[in-house]
Amino acid sequence: MVRTGVVPRDMFTLCLTDTAGALVLGGAAGPEMRKNDYAWVPMTHRAVRTYYEVGVESIKFGPSETSVLPEVRSAIVDSGTTLIVISSRSFGTLREYLQSRYCDQVPGLCGEKTWLETGRCATLSDAHIARLPPITVQLTGGVELRIPPDMYMLRAQMRGQMFRCFGIQHVTGDLVDGRIILGDTFMRAYVTVFDRENSRIGFAAAAENCGMPAVRGNGVLYTLPNATGVQPKQSGQTKQFTVFGYSISRVAAEIIVLVLLLAAVALVVTAIFRCVRSRHPAAGNGTSESHADGSQTALLSNV
């Protein structure tokens, strides 16, 4: 698309919200989509560029002055991953850290059936959530990205009752050894620019309306209202799609480019749908259980 002039630059911007989102092709999103300026972090260079990856200096929870997960040295920024993902080893360290400090403050955190387990959620009030620590990920160059507890404690509904689920998951394998995957749980807090030209990623705090159709950037903007459908919008001085007045070969080229563009947008729609489903899933089936500390946990089949 860059070679054919459909988009002006080899970069794109993503904004994900609970109910909508936006994709800007060929540029960085404008100030209407963000609360502050972009903080730029160089991408990690590899022989084959498979992921959008940046270096990690530390991961801190709450007031901790040292990294809780010192073994994590890089982060993959991935809109196709619903949660924040770390290795099973790192998750064990995180679990021990939280349970040794917050058990008496947040119901259901400790015990055999803790809501830290994947798929197990708990009835927690906003006051309980506020007692949990924010996560601060410090990237290469000292760029600090903060994830508040209300963001990583996802909402899920079962039988008319609202539960909160831990938005950090653990897996095993080479992919996550020494890495953290910053998925939609993280990306909802930031407008993210993938600058392929300069091999860097930019982060800015997302505005509340960053996924609304009225927003403009300096590229070709596609909004995804309510995670359904696509509305192409013209932005800046970039050209619109048109085939009238072109030669047959140019028409064919534009059609090919349009198909590729729609495929890219479809990937973003899928990512946003997964994000919305994880944040506000439909009422599902599951089993619930009450505990001595007054909390109620549930295993939700659709979380």
TrEMBL record:
What are the transmembrane regions? 251-273
Q: Which PROSITE patterns match?
A: ASP_PROTEASE, PEPTIDASE_A1
Which GO annotations describe the biological process of this protein?
proteolysis
Q: Which UniProt keywords apply?
A: Aspartyl protease, Disulfide bond, Hydrolase, Membrane, Protease, Signal, Transmembrane, Transmembrane helix, Zymogen
The molecular function terms in GO held by this entry are: aspartic-type endopeptidase activity
What superkingdom does the record give? Answer: Eukaryota
Instruction: Output compositional bias ranges, type Polar residues.
Output: 285-303
Q: Which InterPro entries match?
A: Aspartic_peptidase_A1, Aspartic_peptidase_AS, Pepsin-like_dom, PEPTIDASE_A1, Peptidase_aspartic_dom_sf
Segments of this protein annotated with the region Disordered: 282-303
Q: List the disulfide bonds.
A: 121-165
| Boundaries of every Peptidase A1 domain copy | 1-204
Spell out the family assignment given in the record's similarity comment.
Belongs to the peptidase A1 family.
The protein in question is named: Aspartic
Q: Which organism is it from?
A: Cyanidiococcus yangmingshanensis
* Primary gene name: BACE2_3
